[in-house]
Amino acid sequence: MTRQAREVLMRTQEADGSWKGDYSGPLFLSPLYIIGLYAMERAPDAPLADGLLSYFRAHQNEDGGWGLSPESPSMVFTTVLTYVAQRLLGVEADDPDLVRARAWLLPRGGPLGSGSWGKAILALLGLYEYEGLTPTPPELWLLPKALPFHPSRMWCHCRMVYLPMGWLYGRKARVRQTPLLAELKRELYPEPYEHVDWKAARQRVADTDAYTPRSPWLRAASRVLGLYERLHSKRLRARALEESLEQIRGEDVATHFICIAPINKVLDTVVWHLARPDGPEVRAHLERLPDYLQRTPEGVTLNGYNSSQLWDTAFAIQALVASGADHARETLARASRFVESQQVREDSPHHERFYRHPSRGGWPFSTREHGWPISDCTAEAVKACLLLEPLGLNRVPRERLAQAVELLLSLQNRDGGWATYEPTRAPRWLERVNASDVFANTMVDVSHVECTSSCVQALVAWKKAQPEAPVEQAITRGLAYLRRTQREDGSWEGAWGVCFSYGTWFGVTALVAAGAPPADPALRRAVRFLEQHQREDGSWSETLQGCRERRWVDGPTGHAVTTSWALLALFACGEADSGATRRGVAWLRARQGADGRWPREPLAGVYNRTGGIHYDTYLRTFPLWALSLAERTQRRAFPPIQV
Ligand code: LAN
Prior knowledge:
50% of the residues lie in helices and 3% in strands. By secondary structure, the protein is mainly alpha-helical. It is globular. Residues 638-643 have low confidence and may be disordered. The structure holds lanosterol. Residues 26, 157-158, 161, 261, 263, 304-305, 311, 365, 374, 376-377, 420, 439, 442, 450-451, 496, 607-608, 613 line the site of lanosterol.
C-alpha cells in the first residue's frame, strides 16, 4: 500500500525533478484575465475560450452564482466578474446560465454589492464609475517611507495589487466603450446606470461579500482620500503615476515579467498597454501570461501562482525519505537537482529602491525566476537539503545553505515568529483599513504558525549540521512564539491550509524537533484536541468553512489530507501506538484506491481565511508520509506476526 503510494508519487515527477500540478482555486482570476485581454483589445483563441467557458459552467453554484473558489458560497465579486467575462467571450445575455446568474446578482445590487476589487476591475471597463470606488490615489507612494501607512509597509501581495490599481485609479483609466459594454451596463444594474448614487456606492457591499466589515477607520480614510481626489494637483499626480510605473518596472525586472501573483500580473500588463501601447513591456508581459494557465478536467482556468513547484518538491522529498530513501534514490537525486537549481542567488536589482527585502539564499514557492523568496519555502528547502545530505544526495553547498539560514534569521519578527515574505513592516492597526471586503488579513504580513514552525525546524536541523551556528536564540524565540499562540483547546490555527489540523501539525513538529518530550503539556493538549475531533470511522475532516468561522467545522466525509496532517502530528507527539492513531491509519489505508491514489476531495489549501486553493500534490504526499511513519513506528512496536 505504502509502496504503491510511493510509486504514484515517483511516477508523477516532472523531467526537471520537480512536482508540478494544478494550483487553481481562486475563481476571480480567469475572469480578470479575460477582462484584461479585452482591455487590451485582445481575446483568447477559440480553443482557449472554450476551455475557459467550460470551467465557468462547471463551477456555477446551484443558486446561479460563483464563489471565491469551487465549493464556496456565491459572492457578487466573483459572480459579476464571471458574468462579464462570459459575455466578453461571446455568450449571449439570454443564455440560461447567465439568466440564472443575473437573477442571483440583481437583488444584491449587481456591481454595487461587489467586494471593492470587483468594482475597480469593472471601472476599467467603464461598467462602474471611479467616483464609486474607495479611493486608491497613487500619491500614497510619494509619502515619507517612515509613515506607518506608506504602501511599502503593506503585505507584499496587497501592495502589489494596489500598485497597478492605484495607477489605473489615478488615470481614471477606461477602455474604449463598445456596444457590448453598453448592453452590459443595462444588464448588470437593478436601476438605470444614470440614477446610481456613486458616492453612496463606495461603502455599499452585499452581505455575501462583506467578510471583513468596513471599519469606521476605513470609512474615515475613504472620506479624506475622496476629498483629496477632488482637490489633487495635476503635477503631483503626474509624479505619482511616474513613480508607480517605476515600481511596476521594478517588479517586472525582479520577477522576469512573471509578477508575484496573477492579479498584479494581469493588471501590470494592462497598465503597460495604456502607458506604452505596443511597447516592449507589453510584449514581455504577454509572453509570460500563459504561465498562469491551467488545464483541468473541467476546462481551463488560471492558477493562483505561477506554480507551487518548489514547495511541492520540498515536501515530496521529505515524504519519500520517510518512506525509505533506498527505494527512491534516483527520484530523490533529480528532485535534489531541482531544489539546487531554484535557489535565488542574488538580491533583486536595486532592492531597496523597490522596497524589497534581500533575496539572496532564499527559495520561492514556485521557481527561481519568480524571484520572491518566502520564509517557509526557504526553510522547507533547507530541511530537504539537510535530509538528503547523509544520503549523499544533497547538491546545495554549505555556504549557500548558510546564506539561506542568514536570510531566515533576517526575516524573524520581534514577536519571535516568522511572517511570509518580509518581517512585519506595519503596525497591526493597519489591518483596520482593509478595504478588500472579501478577505481577511491582507494588509499586514504577520507571524504565522506555519512559517514559524518551518523556520524553527530548519534552524534546528542547521544547528545539528553546524553545531557552532549562532541560531540558538532565534530558535528559543520562535518556540516561545509557538507556545504563546497555541489555543486554549490545544490547537494552532493554520493560515495557509485548512485549518486546525494543518496548524497543529506545524505547531507540534517544531516543538518536537527542538526536543520537547511526548509528556510536554503543550503536546498533550494538542493530542487531546486531535482526539476530540476524530470521527467515528477513524478519519479527520475539516472544511474551508472552518477557516471563515475560525473553528473546527467537520466535512461530510473523512478527508485524507486532513487525516494525514492529524496523524503526522500524533506521530510527532509519540502517539504511534494509540488507538486513535491506529484507527486513523486503518481509515487512510482503506481509503486508498487500487491504483495507489486517494480519491479527489475538497480543497485543503486556503489564503486570507476565505479563499480556497487546490494543492494537487498534497493527496500524493501527505498520506504517503503518514503511512510511512505508521509502518516504521508500528512495525517496531509490533513485529508482524507470520501465520
Ligand atoms: C500563497 C501560496 C504559498 C503560501 C505558502 C508558502 C504555502 C504559505 O506557507 C505562506 C503564504 C503563501 C506564500 C501564499 C500567500 C497567499 C497567496 C499568494 C497564496 C495562497 C497563493 C495565492 C495567494 C494570493 C494572495 C492570492 C491573491 C489574493 C489576494 C488577497 C492578494
